[in-house]
Amino acid sequence: MQRIHFDTEHNLFRESFRTFLQKEVVPHQERWEEAGVVDREVWAKAGEMGFLLPWADEAYGGLGLKDFRYEQIMSEELAYINEPGFMLPLHSALCGPYITEYGNEEQKQRFLPAIIRGECILAVAMTEPGAGSDLAGMRTSAVDKGDHYLLNGSKTYISNGLLSDLVIVAAKTDPENKHAMGLFLVERGMPGFERGRKLKKLGMHSQDTAELFFNDVKVPKANLLGDGKAGFIYLMQMLAQERLTNACGAVAGAEAAFQATLEYVKERKAFGRAVADFQNTRFKLAEMRTQIDVAQVFVDRCVMDHNEKKLTAEVAAEAKLFTTELLGRVVDEGVQLHGGAGYMWEYPICRMYANARIQRIFAGTSEIMKEIISRGLKL
Ligand SMILES: Cc1cc2nc3c(=O)[nH]c(=O)nc-3n(C[C@H](O)[C@H](O)[C@H](O)COP(=O)(O)OP(=O)(O)OC[C@H]3O[C@@H](n4cnc5c(N)ncnc54)[C@H](O)[C@@H]3O)c2cc1C
């Protein structure tokens, strides 16, 4: 189905990002997968090309492209090549906005230029061994010591955990109030800030997901984002954009899995005919095509609503829920239609299947999405 919300400049941007991926990412994917981490240099190259925080003001080195369609395009293109480790959207669409939205002018001047150049890689650390969905249950604490906060605790499953130079860390700031939380800019090299092991995962093998530890880290007050008690609200406000970003990538991932399957079933023969000739195959593909088209229209509309600041947390949750569940179904059917080949790592559908599973879990599980949507129903 033809999409109608992109203009010529978006199409040119897509071409340019696609060329960048073909040159700087695709040739390294196998190696990154083996290494469990992407090359640091790819971040600087993306920065050089203007692909990091393109929406940021020119004063900080951005392009001033305040239009979420550019972030959508980059999430889609990364999904089309099935690259889960180079988490450009995490840096550009998820973490960067915390600094522009809640940072003061001094923080923006101090950090944004290097972030936009790709020299300062970002991560956000909310999840803890004992608190994921229930963020208010986190135990990491930051105690006010006058000119600094003393940060103690640990985080787990943190994307860009090893490569990141600046981590936005959520920590409790008032033992009496479980929702009082601050967001702290913890820099590489701060004494007491340690990285744990790179975690072994079902998929996303090129991503350096890791544990982080904070032992008496002295975080200067100048590294607190906004109000030291309002971090929980900031997280909730930012999660809508995060979920829309997930939705953009998920529907594109479903499209990629659909295309890979379509190609395979035309080539593969069984009982003297192409697998594509079986009615079951055609019906499965027809169902996928329909659901992807419907999801795409919905996501494109959400992107335009977000551009007008009209996207609600509930609708962003609907987008994440629907598209990540769809992605799960499409990769699963895709593997099935590939037969044994679908279980082999050398086939793209196998990697897509492994990489997709997390989409229904991170940035809020499907169950949490349903909670958010149902709260909006005021039952
Ligand atoms: C590869 C990867 C990358 C990640 N990257 C990051 C990152 O960069 N930063 C970060 O902070 N976190 C990150 N996470 C963490 C991720 O966001 C959490 O794993 C996720 O939010 C779920 O939390 P949990 O693992 O504690 O699961 P739990 O909260 O323990 O959930 C277990 C089950 O209980 C269900 N459940 C929980 N509460 C409810 C409820 N109220 N109603 C119904 N069911 C419920 C859940 O849906 C789930 O099915 C990452 C995780 C992974 C695996």
TrEMBL record:
Entry-linked SUPFAM superfamilies: Acyl-CoA dehydrogenase C-terminal domain-like, Acyl-CoA dehydrogenase NM domain-like
Acyl-CoA dehydrogenase/oxidase N-terminal domain location: 8-119
MF annotations from Gene Ontology: acyl-CoA dehydrogenase activity; flavin adenine dinucleotide binding
One matching Pfam family: Acyl-CoA_dh_M
Domain Acyl-CoA dehydrogenase/oxidase C-terminal, chain residue ranges per copy: 230-377
Top-level taxon: Bacteria
Family: Belongs to the acyl-CoA dehydrogenase family.
The protein, known as: Acyl-CoA dehydrogenase
Annotated organism of origin: Halopseudomonas laoshanensis
